[in-house]
Amino acid sequence: MVVTEIGNDEEYDQIQSNFRPVRRFLTRFVFLTAIIPCLLLLWASKIQGEILWALGQDGSLGGVKLYLAWFAFAIEGLWSADAIAASLVKAASLFARYRPRLRLLGDNVPCVDIIIPVCNEKLDIIQDTVRATLNIDYPAHRFRVIVSDDGRNQKLEAWVLQLAADTSNLYYTARVKYGPAGYKAGNLNHAITVSDTLPGGRAELVAGLDADMIPEKRWLRACVAHLIRDPKMGVVCPAQLFYNVPENDPLNQQSSINWLCMDIIRDHAGLGWNLGSGWVVRREAVDDIGGFPTDCLVEDIYSSMLQMAEGWRSAYLAESLQYGLVPETYAAHVKQFARWQYIGGAQMFVNFKGYLSSKLTKRMTLAAKLVGFSSGINVHAKAQLATVFMLLTPFVFLTGTHLIYWRDEAEMKLLLRLYCAIVLTRYLHDCHIGVMAGYRVAVMETGMMRYMSHYYTVAWFKTFFLGKPDGFTPTGSIANSLQERNPARRAPFRERLRHILFDCGAWVQLSVVLAFASCASLQTFRVLGPHWMSGNWVFNRDMWVELLKTVAWPSHLWFPTMLGCLTPLRYALRPPSVPERDRLLGKREENGARYPTEEAKHVRWSLFEVDFVVLYTLFMGYVAAVFVGSWWL
């Protein structure tokens, strides 16, 4: 079998075209901008902790105010608890080699079973995926396409069987489910079992595509090449890109920070996850772990971690080899990300016992354990802390509790400079990530946790305390009755607003915005009101210091949280418009396959959109001004 390495000038790729040499070079040092704010926070936390302890001991601060002060202090520290471990993983980029682009040549290629698991997605979407899969650049007698239908859609079955009459390598199957069915993992395991009974027997490799993911013709040759070159490579997975992302991506649905940066950094550390679609796995590696695990909602990532524990390697390909669909509704977006980024990861952390048990992690690398541990701490703490923060911050303002405490002017200036430096270096890290992923994408990731935290917390509580997880619902099967993004068929404003506020729970974000804004205004009036009522309209140093202490401290999370919570409210008031799917796809080829247009593959960005990114950038300007001004305070 012949494998060759290609350059960017030989074959255009949307992702690789963005990786100019200077960007690759700068990304190598991303761990520096990641670790600096962590070290600064440790320094500042030591000082603030000593101050709070001393004030509590001498009675200068007590009661509710002392407890709230310690709470705010703990939130700040715990919020960054996973950052140091994550920074160590990022250090792998300093000397790592970027994964080369490989291609498998000729007709002497391994057999591959391509599974398309479906469950009640729209028929036309599945049809486009199946046709494009049959149209890949790979010898037809060396791959089989298995449509594994958990929805038992009779129309889909009839269409597949009709197409299969003229296509020798297309098959349809639907399982009979008893008891816990394992959701997508169970569907994949069923299809693998079925593949063993097909003419030719089991294939050496197994691949998977989501029902909405249209593969590029070069997809299989690009992925299989890495498995051929490295006999211990267990799984290879490319980036997931999308062709229906709204202008400015107001909900951060494309998750480009992962595909364009974080997954590359993890791959530098030898940790390329199976990310759910487009993957190609060695059948032997699947057998080693007993099939796809059914006790976790992210069977894809979990399976790759289990394979690493058995000594298999994994790879992430930063290539644009497939294009799919982001959820078309706010409700579907919330449900998808709660499953992807939170509950599944939390289940993995529990199943691996915090990645601290050598009996479970076995031959897993240190980097894999660090990533698993830091991610687990993240999903079991960060959203929950953010939700508690939302609940208690109004009480901080109403009780007159200070956002920061000091004992003398020297401590005040030191803490002010330290905490400003923490915020600014975190922002510098966002900008550093933005070198690869794009500035807007990197900053929007900061806001996403703010507006998604209570959804994550509710899902986490239902899963781990009530024992009633929401389970798996295929995103493509969630109803879109309000047509939020279709300007011609969009439901009336009042109906959409009611749906997002009450059915989707955005009343929580509205309450946070109103509570934070009201309490901060009240606190500001408490500071400035007496001066104004006494006729003193001159803003002086004492007034500014008091404002810093009570409402305007740059590192406190209340203002970024309020900005983040504006995101779903803004979406409800002004939803984006997306063209019909047919308009995003090009002309059909001879076998009926069609692919996203070049225009649809790229997200459009507007310079005049006032959203979280713009407001957060202005806030960073405020922090920078306070930092500089602290030398004249």
TrEMBL record:
Places the protein is found: Membrane
Entries under InterPro entries matching the protein: Glyco_trans_2-like, Glycosyltr_2/OpgH_subfam, Nucleotide-diphossugar_trans
Pfam family, one: Glycos_transf_2
Annotated transmembrane regions: 25-47, 67-89, 385-404, 416-442, 612-632
Record's keyword annotation contains Ligase: no
Domain of life: Eukaryota
The keyword Secreted belongs to this UniProt entry's keyword annotation: no
Keywords: Glycosyltransferase, Membrane, Transferase, Transmembrane, Transmembrane helix
Coarse class of the protein's main subcellular location: membrane
Membrane topology according to the record: Multi-pass membrane protein
Designated name of the protein: Glycosyltransferase 2-like domain-containing protein
Organism per entry: Podospora bellae-mahoneyi
Origin organism lineage: Eukaryota, Fungi, Dikarya, Ascomycota, Pezizomycotina
